[in-house]
């Protein structure tokens, strides 16, 4: 059973990337070796194999994250891909599952939600591609921040359309809650609007 991660907004992409890095560190690093090859199954126990299969597509000794990386700002995605290219960790994102915009959301929930409708077809096509790579998907894991515009607005929209697309899949939303006094003036409004939508769309947050 597999898990597909939705990285939404700058915060969601940063946390999602770190999640996959941590999975690699935990599962492919050995105290006496810098790396264990994926093909060397005799040295990897069932737990590690299941963990990798759950979060990565394995093909020709390469690991591809079961993830969609989504943001409305080009610089966020460019930074994500640059960091990944410079990283020594042995996994990558599927290019067709990296969705970028050029307008941004300006910390505005409504703007982010509208951008979600613009990106809907790309999101669903990328999601369907990920579904085709798995024997079975039991969990969708959206990661988003409540404070900004993309993570909150587009994130709320994305969770809604995923719920409509996959009504029987378990939607476990990971939300990053802002400090009581943060740098985004409208973060309280963004948080309230997002939570009101996730309440109806997600199974748990």
From TrEMBL:
Listed GO biological process terms: cell projection organization; microtubule-based process
The terms under GO molecular function for this entry are: GTP binding; structural constituent of cytoskeleton
InterPro entries assigned: Delta_tubulin, Tubulin, Tubulin/FtsZ_GTPase_sf, Tubulin_CS, Tubulin_FtsZ_GTPase
Signal sequence, renumbered to the chain: none
User: Where can this protein be found?
Assistant: Cell projection, Cilium; Cytoplasm, Cytoskeleton, Microtubule organizing center, Centrosome, Centriole; Nucleus
Keyword field contains GTP-binding: yes
Q: Name one Pfam family in it.
A: Tubulin
- One cellular component term from this protein's GO annotations in UniProt: nucleus
List UniProt keywords, sorted A-Z: Cell projection, Cilium biogenesis/degradation, GTP-binding, Microtubule, Nucleotide-binding, Nucleus
Chain ranges of the Tubulin/FtsZ GTPase domain: 52-205
Per its database record, what is this protein's job? Acts as a positive regulator of hedgehog signaling and regulates ciliary function.
The entry sums up its family as follows:
Belongs to the tubulin family.
Q: What is this protein called?
A: Tubulin delta chain
Q: Which organism is it from?
A: Adineta steineri
């Amino acid at each position: 059973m597999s898990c597909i991660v939705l990285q939404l907004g700058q915060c969601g992409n940063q946390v999602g990337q770190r999640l996959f890095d941590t999975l690699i560190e935990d599962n492919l690093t050995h105290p006496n070796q810098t790396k264990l090859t994926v093909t060397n199954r005799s040295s990897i126990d069932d737990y590690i194999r299941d963990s990798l299969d759950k979060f990565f597509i394995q093909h020709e000794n390469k690991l591809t994250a079961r993830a969609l990386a989504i943001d409305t700002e080009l610089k966020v995605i460019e930074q994500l891909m640059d960091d990944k290219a410079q990283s020594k960790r042995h996994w990558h994102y599927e290019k067709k599952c990296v969705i970028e915009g050029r307008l941004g959301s300006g910390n505005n929930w409504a703007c982010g939600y509208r951008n979600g409708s613009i990106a809907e077809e790309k999101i669903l096509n990328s999601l369907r591609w990920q579904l085709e790579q798995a024997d079975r998907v039991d969990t969708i894991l959206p990661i988003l921040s409540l404070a900004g515009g993309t993570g909150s607005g587009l994130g709320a929209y994305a969770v809604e359309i995923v719920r409509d697309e996959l009504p029987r899949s378990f939607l476990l939303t990971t939300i990053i809650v802002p400090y009581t006094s943060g740098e985004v003036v409208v973060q309280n409004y963004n948080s309230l609007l997002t939570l009101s939508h996730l309440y109806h769309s997600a199974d748990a947050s």
